[in-house]
Specification:
Elements (H helix, E strand, L loop, with lengths): L2 E5 L2 E4 L4 E8 L6 E8 L6 E7 L5 E3 L7 E6 L4 E6 L8 E9 L8 H4 L13 E6 L1
Parallel strand pairs: 2-10
Antiparallel strand pairs: 1-3, 3-8, 4-5, 4-9, 5-6, 7-8, 9-10
């Protein structure tokens, strides 16, 4: 069974940092993409960043480029999202999810973020609150 569990959220002042963790089980990361999404109150869920286990490609939303970094520890089956220079507009519930990177679609980290209906294994989310 595919399972993803997020952790690491919290309350931080603007300019601060947090590191989110997504612990994965039930599948092989080598042929999957793991992504981070967020949803603020009253807004749609949006893709933040993703990492392909197949080709190690990454994707970052324009709003987080240069501030967030996605990485993985394959030995721990965990993907991290290091968030620096946080802004109040980063406040949201952050979720991780996964999608296959192999046949037949051979999705890339970037392309996969536009196909949110294909993602699964959604975790319960972790709240990130950035105060001004």
């Amino acid at each position: 069974e595919v399972q993803l569990v997020e952790s690491g959220g919290g309350l931080v002042q603007a300019g601060g940092s947090l590191r989110l963790s997504c612990a994965a089980s039930g599948f092989t990361f080598d042929d999957h993409i793991i992504g981070w999404f967020r949803q603020a109150p009253g807004k749609e869920r949006e893709g933040v960043s993703s990492l392909s286990g197949r080709d190690r490609g990454t994707y970052y939303a324009d709003s987080v480029k240069g501030r967030f970094t996605i990485s993985s520890d394959n030995g721990k089956n965990t993907v991290y999202l290091q968030m620096n220079s946080l802004k109040p507009e980063d406040t949201a519930v952050y979720y991780c999810a996964t999608v296959g990177a192999g046949p037949p679609r051979y999705l890339t980290a970037a392309h996969s973020m536009s196909l949110i209906r294909l993602w699964g294994g959604w975790g319960q989310g972790t709240q990130v609150t950035v105060s001004s």
